[in-house]
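Lecture notes, unit on binding sites. The following record was shown on slide 14. It pairs a sequence with beta-D-glucopyranose.
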Amino acid sequence: MPFPKDFLWGCATAAGQVEGGALEDGRTPSIWDTFAAIPGKTYMGQTPAVACDSYHRFDRDLDNMKKLGLNAYRMSISWSRVLPEGTGPLNQKGVDYYKRCFEKLNEAGITPAVTLYHWDLPQVLEDKGGWVNRDSIEWFGEYAEKMFRTFGDVVPMWATVNEPIATYVGYAIGAFAPGRHNEAEGNQARHNILVAHGKGVEAFRAVNPKDSKIGIVIDIWKRHALTDSQADHDLMVDEDERNWKFYTDPVLGGRYSDYILEHLEREGTLMHIGPDDLRLMHLPIDFYGLNVYNRVPVTTDRQARADYTQGGNFMNNASEYYPKAISDAVRMINKMYDLKIPIYVTENGTYAVGDEPVGPDGIICDDDRIRYINGFLSELETVINEGCDVRGYFLWSLMDNFEWSAAYNYRFGIQSLNRETLQTEWKKSAYFYRDFIRRARGL
Ligand code: BGC
């Protein structure tokens, strides 16, 4: 059976990675503007100040979406563009920008799938303690409510938060904004953002925008033990618990695992959990957004690691080609939480480091990306045929963009970006994706 007729075929981007216009029309800096300005934090000190300039070139993006035959587009709102103080009065110019984007998408028959928080906390809120401060739950609730009231009639699909793990990477590991290195703060921050998600869901139900749905996006990087040893098994369990179950357990299952609670307690980094927190985190949602890129093999055994590295199926960027990551994740999540809501694959894609080769026809020849997308889509089709309720696929990404700490050096786009002229150009994978969608949609 082919993909369902009403399946959503999209590309995904995020405000902090494509918009630019960092300080225009009343926008204030986000934590990523601040972080990128600190020497050594991003590749070559590159910043998101201009990025793909989508703030001024949304029509260029829209034109490409039409040519690709997309019927959905996943984007995010920059919190500090619409609420420059983080809370309080709306910035009309920021609101107008998004209103125009959403209306144009709708006119083109492209469903806007909008994420409220894709990692770009207003710096003014970070100055008040950021996600470690419990007030962040209320700040987000206010922001969410304002967005639902403002755009509820033009946005049929909302996600509260994209990949809550990014708060942990930002507050505990320091590799992402705001660049703090404190395990206990990281745990508190990632807990708070999940409760904030719940506040967002609560606000959504209160505003109750007509014909609109709410979900969350959580990434799954399933660990695979490379040997049968107890040590590898334990490592796999530990990493699964900390890296994605930390988020899926409370949101989809209603509780943190005993494993997490016991381990964090023992490590002295257990977060404060308020009396109403678990209820909020577990409020019913309408869909689960799955970001999936790869599996993660783990082992304590050097030889097993070497064998895997030599024997595996790798791409030019040195990451493994493992398309079953997508079908494994869909089956596993359905089973673990007895999921009764549809899944949308909200991100999937692969990258090249630095410039990609150009073919004799002058077009970037990204055969690895084509192989990757084709492999993942074929696995996705398999699980849909098995009866799993997956209703959309958003390719990351519409174009090369600001890839966080790796800045413009990691290229995830099916279009390249000329950083001088700010023009985009189709890679071979864009033609491939267009043709795939045409066939799937029967166009
Ligand atoms: C994030 C994107 C990012 C992509 C590729 C996801 O984790 O949501 O913002 O660009 O992966 O690394």
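Take-home: Residues 14, 17, 162-163, 219, 291, 347, 396, 403, 412 surround beta-D-glucopyranose (CB under 6 Å).
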